[in-house]
Amino acid sequence: MILAAGYLSSCAPKAQNDCGFVQNIYGQRISWKSQDTIKLIIHNSVPVELRAAAIRAAATWERQIGRKVFEISEDSTLLTGSPSRDRKNGIYFLSEWESDRKSEQGRTSVYWAGDQIQEADIRINAADFSYYDLNPQQLIGSYNLKKSSGKSSSDGYSFEALILHEMGHMLGLKHRDGSTVMATHLAAFSDRTQLASVDQESIKCEYK
Questions:
Q1: Which three-class secondary structure state does DSSP give residue 111?
Q2: Range of the domain at 36
Q3: Number of domains making up the chain
Q4: Rounded distance, CA 74 to CA 78, Å?
């Protein structure tokens, strides 16, 4: 029994410092282990006016990592109409959202095997929130409000800041408290588009 226990223990993966990453059941950080670029498709539900913000958000992570990480395509024919587990990574701007999750601005679903991410999909809640790129006066979204009252929310949220946060999840990062792009909530008209020192340290822990 002692010998068997020792054998099993020696075969178990070694736990790691989380460095702000989601961990698997063995305490290993999950991430894209390959040096290959992550193919990310912008679905046609994402308004053209907001797409440049997603490209800038990707570039922010790439500058910190020091290499090209994302290969972004706007050919949404490569995707199905809604997020699904299909081994393809997409960004979706959804006009319908779960009624019990109306406070959720976005959600990234990450699928992994072992400690390696295989797929991730970013969903943006356009049903209950409005977004802008560079001009806070030009808001897009709040489709639920438009349906019910013909009006949209006067609060706007930086699409670049939100996508920067969700791309952090796509890379494996989890929510953190404090001054970080991975903080849970994004305030209205907050241009949180620069990585904090904790974000820089976290991402380098896994992507060197």
A1: strand
A2: 16-93+106-124+156-202
A3: 1
A4: 9
